[in-house]
Amino acid sequence: xxxxxxxxxxxxxxxxxxxxxxxxxxxxxxxxxxxxxxxxxxxxxxxxxxxxxxxxxxxxxxxxxxxxxxxxxxxxxxxxxxxxxxxxxxxxxxxxxxxxxxxxxxxxxxxxxxxxxxxxxxxxxxxxxxxxxxxxxxxxxxxxxxxxxxxxxxxxxxxxxxxxxxxxxxxxxxxxxxxxxxxxxxxxxxxxxxxxxxxxxxxxxxxxxxxxxxxxxxxxxxxxxxxxxxxxxxxx
Amino acid sequence: xxxxxxxxxxxxxxxxxxxxxxxxxxxxxxxxxxxxxxxxxxxxxxxxxxxxxxxxxxxxxxxxxxxxxxxxxxxxxxxxxxxxxxxxxxxxxxxxxxxxxxxxxxxxxxxxxxxxxxxxxxxxxxxxxxxxxxxxxxxxxxxxxxxxxxxxxxxxxxxxxxxxxxxxxxxxxxxxxxxxxxxxxxxxxxxxxxxxxxxxxxxxxxxxxxxxxxxxxxxxxxxxxxxxxxxxxxxxxxxxxxxxxxxxxxxxxxxxxxxxxxxxxxxxxxxxxxxxxxxxxxxxxxxxxxxxxxxxxxxxxxxxxxxxxxxxxxx
Lengths: 236, 315
Known about the structure:
The complex is a heterodimer of chains A (236) and B (315). Chain A has 236 residues and is α/β, with parallel strands linked by helices. In chain A, helix 4 packs antiparallel against helix 5 (138-151) and helix 5 packs parallel to helix 6. Chain A has one domain (2-233): Rossmann fold, CATH 3.40.50. In chain A, strand 7, helix 6 and strand 8 (187-192) form a beta-alpha-beta unit. Chain A contains 9 helices and 10 strands. Chain A is globular and about 45 Å long. Chain A has helices at residues 40-48, 71-76, 94-101, 111-121, 138-151, 168-183, 195-201, 219-224, 226-233; strands at 2-11, 14-24, 29-33, 54-61, 64-65, 79-82, 156-160, 187-192, 204-209, 212-218. Chain B is mostly helical. In chain B, strands 1-4 form a two-stranded antiparallel sheet. In chain B, strands 2-3 form a two-stranded antiparallel sheet. Chain B is built from 14 helices and 4 strands. Chain A binds chain B through residues 50, 52, 70-72, 75-76, 80-83, 87-92, 97, 100-101, 103-104, 107, 148-149, 152, and chain B through 103, 177, 181, 184, 187-188, 190-198, 200, 315.
């Protein structure tokens, strides 16, 4: 569904990604693992065309080249990013945040049924619908961020470190939600530092180090791979 | 009549009644109130809705003033065409200034817009054949339907009408899809972009619209003054605009109007203090930011909240 081939990116003279190729099959969960500064967020930024990096290579969505399209056009094609650190509209309520997710769709029509669908997915948010986003806990904010992405009717979501800063119990819950939206038929590209959890729910995974893909394969295989365990699962 | 409409009606009635009993100088001051309030509206759009800073609005003001003066004197076109031309020329430059705003924010954007204003001022000064340079440019009195308006009394009502028109446009802009998108970008650019709001388009629209308003104001100002010189459009003017907008209130049309009154009346009230005036302005600005961040208009909100109504001055 999403094909990245020979993608290189740099910020001025600083190279962030070198010759990265990655593919996400329809309805799968693919995890991209790597430590801080490995280039994970740059990769997502290149896909959504929302960062000022210079890039070469190709990015296709269902066979169509999207690397030159503006962000809003990419979202309109069903690829939606849940950014690192949730990035909610802090002053708005939960429901207003969710409604903002439907911005790109035809105005004022089907957002109501979409909202019901998101509430069905995240029942916890129903009682919080009028709460100001900034006053919620990290885990709840992450739910809203994912819910907001779901409002755009994505076919594929890109999740940038959804477990960031969350307590272990909440991490588990967020990952369960990710599996759930995947079961609804949404393809997922998951960027994570929490390798153990990310591998547990993924079909395939890639490891990125210093801007290069150093390892890839089925999640089970990577789970067994000595390097990955050592590098990312050490103490987790 | 709903309370909001009633308030607007009363404000307009008071504004219409103000000039009576005043002399020529009073008319002139009231005319400047309207002209400044239009700049206030333009900053309401750019800063209040768009979250973009500009300390270059004197540049747009100058472009509007000179464009109108040149269109009316050199091309012989009617006054209102000149005013429109002033808005359009400034608006086009506004779209141009938006381009650096797509790359830089905050202090850097402030410096970029400051650079723009200095460039405009210098360009108008040097381009003598067109702008009169050092000597400046004479601008004819405003005229409507073939009759020249000799008194500022009549001109004040023209300005009031144009202000109300612009305020209505700004109000509808705030409620439009574009205005809402702009406010979403102000709250969080990343979040808004993730929702599919194209930032470049909206930043350009914000700058162009804001510059258009300021250009119209500058054009109207040129015809009020009767003579243009580049000194009027200095950095001090840009800074006055900014402080006027903050003191009046950045987030509403009412705040823009109060800002206009502030900028036009403060020098009159504080005339006695001579050189100490600048100090007083500075202190007023600091006090306002510290204790009344919503501007003078938020005093109205305090009263409204006592009455259990929704605030106006907060975004």
